[in-house]
Amino acid sequence: MSKKTNNNQEGKKAYELSFLLKDPASEKSVLDLLAKYKISEIKQSSINPIKLAYPIKKHVSAYFGYVNFEADPADIKEISDSLRLNNEVIRFLIVNAIVVEGKKVEEGSEQKRTVKSESSNSKALTNEALEEKLEEILK
Questions:
Q1: Considering Cα of 41, then 46, then 47, then 52, what sign does the dihedral take?
Q2: What confidence tier does 15 reach under pLDDT thresholds 50, 70, 90?
Q3: Which residues, 6 or more positions from 86, have their beta carbon under 8 angstroms from its beta carbon?
Q4: Rounded CA gap, 61 and 58, in Å?
Q5: Cβ contacts of residue 82 below 8 Å, gap of 6+?
Q6: Does the model's pTM come out above 0.70?
Q7: Could you read off the pLDDT of 30-58 as tens digits, one per residue?
Q8: How far is CA 96 from the centre of its chain?
């Protein structure tokens, strides 16, 4: 399986921005910030309310969303700094997106693969035969 970073001819790379917001109306400020840096949006999720596992900045619930986009790598630091200063954003994470066989996935995550085992092609063992095999192995 080949992995490659998604670069287009303009030097932009694919990224994913995940964020927790205080209220759903704050999504507009995040999207406006991204538009300021002339990103090309690929995919955007709907904002969903979630209960946090532990309090973050004294919040026990938040609104979660994510945006997949392409941007110039030089702008990512500035986008990150702007999001850090935005009081409506509780937490955020920007990761490089990579392409694996035509599908975008997060960098660092592993693609789940289906592996056929050798035993799936052979016929099933009975309990007695399985016990005999185990005894043979343990000797």
A1: negative
A2: very high
A3: 26, 29, 30, 33
A4: 9
A5: 33
A6: no
A7: 988 888 888 887 788 889 999 999 999 89
A8: 9
Q: Which tokens sit at 79? A: 């986008």
Other C-beta atoms lying within 10 Å of the C-beta of residue 60? 10
CATH superfamily of 3-110: Ribosomal protein S6/Translation elongation factor EF1B (3.30.70.60)
Maximum alpha-carbon separation in the chain? 71
- Whole-number Å distance between alpha carbons of 93 and 91: 7
Residue 94 tokens, joined: 């920007």
Question: Which letter does DSSP use for residue 15 in this model?
Answer: E
What does the alpha-carbon distance between residue 17 and residue 13 come to, in Å, rounded to a whole number?
Answer: 13
**Domain ranges for the chain:** 3-110
